[in-house]
């Protein structure tokens, strides 16, 4: 069974918030066939710890305001190297570039379908 409509909505909103904070390589994977605990992963990266935390804060705010969604689990925020936000339907990974390169989640989940996400809008904060 593919990712739910709600999971896609949450992923899209989270990706938009990440783009607004200049996240890089934002990708989404439908992991519903491989994992029973969630429908999809969103993976994004940033070049420094401060930006990782800013992206995480923007995603949390967007999902809280627009969907009344709060993560059931939040890990790694203090270090700002790899933050995991678990919303049950989706799991969001915001990683420092070095962790993204080392752990290569997209390689681990390469057999899963990629979920199309909106591109940053030219002229918006995310495209500048």
TrEMBL record:
Protein name per Swiss-Prot or TrEMBL: Ribosomal silencing factor RsfS
Q: Where in the cell is it found?
A: Cytoplasm
Give the keywords, sorted. Answer: Cytoplasm, Repressor, Translation regulation
Coarse class of the protein's main subcellular location: cytoplasm
Q: Does the keyword RNA-binding apply?
A: no
Q: Which organism is it from?
A: Kribbella soli
Oligomeric state and partners?
A: Interacts with ribosomal protein uL14 (rplN).
- Which family, according to UniProt? Belongs to the Iojap/RsfS family.
Q: Which InterPro entries match?
A: Iojap/RsfS/C7orf30 (IPR004394), NT_sf (IPR043519)
Q: Its function? A: Functions as a ribosomal silencing factor. Interacts with ribosomal protein uL14 (rplN), blocking formation of intersubunit bridge B8. Prevents association of the 30S and 50S ribosomal subunits and the formation of functional ribosomes, thus repressing translation.
**What Gene Ontology terms describe where this protein resides (cellular component)?**
cytoplasm
Question: One GO molecular function term?
Answer: ribosomal large subunit binding
**Gene3D superfamilies from the UniProt entry:** Beta Polymerase, domain 2 (3.30.460.10)
What processes does the entry annotate via GO biological process terms?
cytosolic ribosome assembly; negative regulation of ribosome biogenesis; negative regulation of translation
């Amino acid at each position: 069974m593919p990712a739910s409509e709600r999971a896609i909505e949450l992923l899209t909103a989270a990706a938009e918030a990440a783009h607004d904070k200049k996240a890089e390589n934002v990708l989404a994977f439908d992991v519903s066939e491989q994992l029973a605990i969630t429908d999809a992963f969103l993976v994004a990266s940033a070049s420094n710890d401060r930006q990782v935390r800013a992206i995480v804060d923007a995603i949390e705010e967007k999902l809280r305001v627009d969907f009344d969604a709060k993560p059931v689990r939040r890990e790694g925020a203090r270090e700002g190297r790899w933050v995991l936000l678990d919303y049950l339907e989706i799991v969001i990974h915001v990683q420092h570039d070095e962790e993204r390169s080392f752990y290569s989640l997209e390689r681990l989940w390469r057999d899963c379908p990629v979920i199309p996400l909106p591109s940053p809008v030219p002229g918006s904060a995310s495209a500048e």
